[in-house]
Design brief:
about 60 residues, mainly alpha, 3 helices, binds iron/sulfur cluster
C-alpha cells in the first residue's frame, strides 16, 4: 500500500488465513517488522484482537 494503510482498511498483504504475505520479505514495512506483539494486544481471539485494534485506532485518530 504505497500511501500507507488507512485506519479501518484491511492490509492488502493480509492473506485469507491471516498470515502476512510479506513476512520475511525485505519489502515488509519496517513498522510491521519492528512490532512486538504482546498478550494484551493479541487478546484471547482474533475477534478480541480486532476489537482492541479498532479501539486504538479511535483513540489515536487525528
Ligand atoms: S504485517 Fe504489515 S504488511 Fe503484513 S499484513 Fe500486517 S499490516 Fe500488512
Amino acid at each position: 500500500m504505497p500511501q500507507g494503510k488507512p485506519a479501518g482498511v484491511r492490509c492488502a498483504q493480509l492473506l485469507p488465513d491471516l498470515r502476512c504475505a510479506l513476512f520475511g520479505d525485505p519489502r515488509r514495512p519496517p513498522v510491521c517488522a519492528s512490532l512486538k506483539p504482546s498478550p494484551g494486544m493479541c487478546a484471547g481471539s482474533a475477534e478480541q484482537a480486532l476489537h482492541g485494534l479498532l479501539w486504538l485506532e479511535q483513540q489515536t485518530a487525528p
